[in-house]
Amino acid sequence: MQKLVSIIIPVYNAEHYIREAVNSALAQTYAHIEVVVVDDGSTDGTKGTLRNYIAEKRIRYVFQTHKGLPAARNTAIRNSRGEYLALLDADDVFFPEKIERQV
């Protein structure tokens, strides 16, 4: 049985980057993943950019008032169900095989 991996993405005002980060998380060759995005009080169009992912339940989206990166990561961890965690910044991407190779 495959272990669940939670990909944690904290985001703050990254509407121009977040779609690419989320797509790279969802494109993993290791299929047993969940993507948890914590919006740390963004005031730009970040939530709108993520609207379809949220509606299709492809990601778990949590909004919180702005508390900073460590707090956003901690919130994401509390909202994750995976046995393993993978941290992905909102302005970064994973290669498709990243999770598979690490597991």
Which key features would you list for this structure?
103 residues, alpha/beta, four-stranded parallel beta sheet
Structure, described:
This protein has helices at residues 18-26, 46-55, 69-78, 98-102, and strands spanning 5-11, 33-40, 60-64, 84-87. By secondary structure, the protein is α/β, with parallel strands linked by helices. The chain has a 4-stranded parallel beta sheet, sandwiched between helices. Strand 2, helix 2 and strand 3 form a beta-alpha-beta unit.
Could you give a short account of the major beta sheet?
4 strands, parallel
Work out the helicity level. 25-40%
The end-to-end distance, rounded to whole angstroms, is 12 Å
Shape: globular
List the helices and strands and how they pair.
Elements: E1 5-11, H1 18-26, E2 33-40, H2 46-55, E3 60-64, H3 69-78, E4 84-87, H4 98-102
Parallel strand pairs: 1-2, 1-4, 2-3
Outline of this structure?
The protein has helices at 18-26, 46-55, 69-78, 98-102, and strands at 5-11, 33-40, 60-64, 84-87.
